[in-house]
Each structure stands twice: as structure tokens, then as C-alpha cells.
Amino acid sequence: VQFVESGGGLVQSGGSLTLSCAASGFDFKYFDINWFRQAPGMERELVASIDWDGNSKTYADSVHGRFIISRDNAKKTVSLQMNTLKPEDTAVYFCNTRIAGIDYWGQGTQVTVSS
Question: In the prediction, which pLDDT does 63 show?
């Protein structure tokens, strides 16, 4: 199982970024996928989740209405569109899935929002 995240960077407050996550090594279309983030000195937190066919999406209260998660099962990718970014969104963002009770993670992509 492998995830490769991309699309992070430096953006001003109020700006937008779209993160992408490319998956391989498992039957992607059958599994829910999550985006987590971790800020320095903080615990990793769940940001958004999407179920296997993309019909069910959930968001953390802190990003609800600003972030949109989506997936393309043919391309084995998951995206996180982030709008109206705030300095408190600064973190490393990770893709995740759980298979047979085991969590798999990508290496993460850094998002920095300047005030």
C-alpha cells in the first residue's frame, strides 16, 4: 500500500490550494480514504473522509464549508480542495486508509498559510 501526496505549498490567508493523493498497491475502489493533518506539537487530526464510491463525505468542524474531498476511482486518486485558508490550517497533510485493522499513511505534504 502506498500513498503519494502532492500539492502543498505556501499560500496567503484567504487563498486556496488543492492537494492530491495517488494510491497504489491495493484495490482502491473498495476502501474509504481519509485526509489527516498534523501541526507542530499537535496530535494528528482527521480532516475529511470519503467512502468507497464517493457518495458519503464527512468533515471536521474546523474545515466544514471550506474544504471539499473527492475521489476518482479510475485514476486511484483522492483530492482535497481547500478554500478560504487560515493560518491555523498550517500543517502536514496525510492520506490514510485502514485495511484489515492496519492504518496506512503517505509521507505527507506541507501546507503553510501566512497571515
Answer: 98
* Mean pLDDT on 9-19: 98
Grid cell at residue 24: 497504489
pLDDT tens per residue, range 38-86: 999 999 999 999 999 999 999 999 999 999 999 999 999 999 999 999 9
Q: Which of 87, 92, 94 is nearest to 15 (CA)?
A: 87
13: which residues sit within 8 A by CB, 6+ positions away? 85, 86, 87, 113, 114, 115
Q: What is the DSSP string of 28-63?
A: GGGS-EEEEEE-TTS--EEEEEE-TTSS-EEE-TTT
**Residue 41 and residue 88: Cα distance in Å, rounded?**
13
Q: Are 90 and 110 in contact (CB under 8 A)?
A: no
Distance CA 86, CA 84 (A): 7
